[in-house]
Amino acid sequence: MDAAALATSQHRRTAMLVAACSIELSPRDELAGDMLRPLLAAGTTVFVNHPPSVTHHDIVAACARLRRAGFDPVPHVAARRLASFTQATDFLQRAVGEADVDRILLIGGDESHLLRQGEVGKALAAARGLNDVLPGGRPGDPDSDGDWFVTDWMDTSRAQEALQFQHHAWPDMLAEMRAAAGWRRHPMRLVAPVARRFLKRRAAYRNAPGCYADPWGAIRTRLGEPRPDNVLIG
Asked: Measured between alpha carbons, how far is 214 from 38 in angstroms, rounded to an integer?
């Protein structure tokens, strides 16, 4: 292969690699805007990360610049770096209003982890030999977004596709737990009936009115007001 043909082949392979990869920028990167136009086609999805050195205002501003430049910005949302529900709400509302953002990058697990809390608890207990010891819960109220939120899940398929961060499916994790418990799983089966009766008497909704789950109410009854102090004060 001569030099010209080799250069052409390398250029083609480089273009294919860039077309298949995900693009991520820092909010303060000078390329987060018009300067990206010569490098990427209009409409390209560009992820905007959330490092400790920036605020959500920086991220919204970068997303707005990218949108004006013809790209599709997708911000990361690092919940641990948001001080309150009020700040999180402001972040998302501004991202939608100023940058026309219609999705975020959420890291949380693959499809095998899309489980309700009742399923998770029972599977974890069974992996240790305690089969069917946890009392049944209640279904979520279809008319209450707030009550569903605590036991709901979000779609992480795009994040998994882009980052490939989830390496262990839920069944694999349960198999590992069973192996770690080893022989201790067998005597635990003898304890299961007693544990079942004990936990049933301590169930969160025992003797409680209603037919739907009320997680915030159960938390409030046992532990006190669950909302952050600054929300209560505000």
From this structure: 53
